[in-house]
Design goal:
With 386 residues, the chain is of the alpha/beta class. The chain is built from 17 helices and 12 strands. The strands form 3 sheets. Strands 1, 2, 3, 4, 5, 6, 7 and 8 form an 8-stranded mixed beta sheet that branches. Strands 9-10 form a two-stranded antiparallel ribbon. A two-stranded antiparallel ribbon has the order 11-12. A hairpin with a 4-residue loop joins strand 3 and strand 4.
């Protein structure tokens, strides 16, 4: 029997793109395996950052459409508009940026941007708003807010980075009988808040270690924005005494991204960034490489064994030689040239991200088992195989 893993990347509000892909997977599973939900079909679901919210939602028996609605309806309560506007360059600087386009003036606008942009942080809680409050009221299991160990199926893995011990914490709902984890009594929404507290966007989040001590965590994407490799390792470890149930020869991985940023930077663009400039680009420069590295290792590892691996992700934008920026799949499907904003903290982007994901499902192609096949066909083949 195949041991099936679902892995969900980080990416802020762009998690709605992953949720739309999950909606398609859910429909195909329901057709081929009547009565089964995703938390029953997959043996293990792993998530980092916004992927942890999706993983936890599925574990709480939420449907993909409910997860899409969570981003659409609650995104503005996580990424508050008032904070978003504070984080943007001030109007006089935007006015200069629109007008001072000559090559020799790039350093001036870069300097002005650093002076004018303030990097306010989104709150964990502000009345009924904030990341923590949104997750607390939405992650409900059997009528209550569950502790992670109260989730019965599937095996759940959520990653967050512990800045005190400088280790990635692997939060999971199942353990050997002789081990009681320190987070055993922490509610699931708190663990997801920690996993999604991206540096430069949110403050670190404290999780109670014991009655006298807290362990401070930040976004798991710092160490593993794509948790697929960690998920494989965890599945093997948890089943080490039962290798017939799970070993490298019977693992299948379905890995879902949140769209790839494609913003190009020339030397002159980044040479003058300074600390603030580098910090503002942490999500699109520092998180993507680790995700791609995990993707490449998983693909090579599983394919070398002839095992099943499917990665669903795509470039949010293409860049033509003429300077045109557009989403490839929207252009193919709808014959319109439309760019997708690549920010991870702007809820106004939700509908465009959903549209891009739908067009990707309708007309995109993906590398699957060494062949280029339509995305929807690849998903159907993956589900049919197991």
């Amino acid at each position: 029997m195949t041991y099936k893993i679902l892995s969900l990347d980080g990416g802020g509000i762009r998690g709605v793109l992953s949720a739309k892909i999950l909606d398609e997977i859910e429909a195909i599973v329901a057709k081929q395996h009547p009565g089964k939900k995703l938390n029953q079909y997959f043996n293990l679901i792993a998530g980092t950052s916004t992927g942890s919210i999706l993983a936890a939602g599925l574990a709480c028996q939420m449907e993909a459409k409910q997860l899409i609605d969570l981003y659409k309806n609650e995104g503005g309560n996580i990424f508050l508009k008032s904070v978003y506007l504070q984080r943007q360059p001030k109007k006089p600087i935007r006015w200069l940026q629109r007008r001072l386009t000559a090559y020799g003036l790039r350093q001036l606008t870069s300097w002005l941007r650093r002076l004018g942009g303030t990097y306010a942080l989104y709150p964990h809680q502000k009345g009924n708003q904030g990341l923590a409050k949104v997750l607390e009221r939405n992650l409900i299991y059997k009528g209550k807010s569950p502790k992670i160990t109260e989730i019965t199926e599937p095996l759940l893995l959520i990653l967050a980075y512990d800045v005190f011990s400088r280790n990635t914490t692997w939060f999971t709902n199942q353990h050997p009988s002789d081990y009681i984890p320190w987070y055993n009594n922490i509610e699931l929404w708190e663990i997801c808040t920690a996993s999604a507290s991206a540096p430069t966007f949110f403050s670190p989040y404290k999780l109670s270690y014991n009655s006298e001590k807290y362990l401070t965590h930040i976004d798991g994407g710092v160490s593993a924005n794509n948790p697929a490799l960690s998920a494989i390792a965890h599945a093997l470890w948890m089943n080490r005494e039962n290798p017939e149930k799970c070993n490298l020869n019977n693992i299948a991985v379905l890995s879902i991204g949140t769209g790839k940023t494609t913003q190009r930077y020339e030397y002159d663009d980044i040479a003058q960034w300074g600390l603030a400039g580098w910090a503002s680009h942490i999500s699109d420069i520092f998180l993507d490489p680790s995700a791609k590295n995990s993707e490449d290792i998983c693909r090579q590892l599983l394919r070398s064994l002839g095992r099943n691996y499917l990665r669903l992700d795509f470039n949010l934008n293409e860049h033509s030689k003429e300077g045109e920026v557009y989403n490839k799949y929207i252009k193919i499907k709808k014959q319109i040239t439309k760019p997708i904003k690549e920010e991870i903290d702007n809820p106004d982007n939700c509908q465009d991200l959903i549209e891009a994901a739908q067009c990707y499902l309708d007309c995109g192609e993906v590398d699957y088992k060494g062949k280029t096949v339509p995305v929807r066909s690849a998903i159907q083949q993956f589900i049919e195989s197991h």
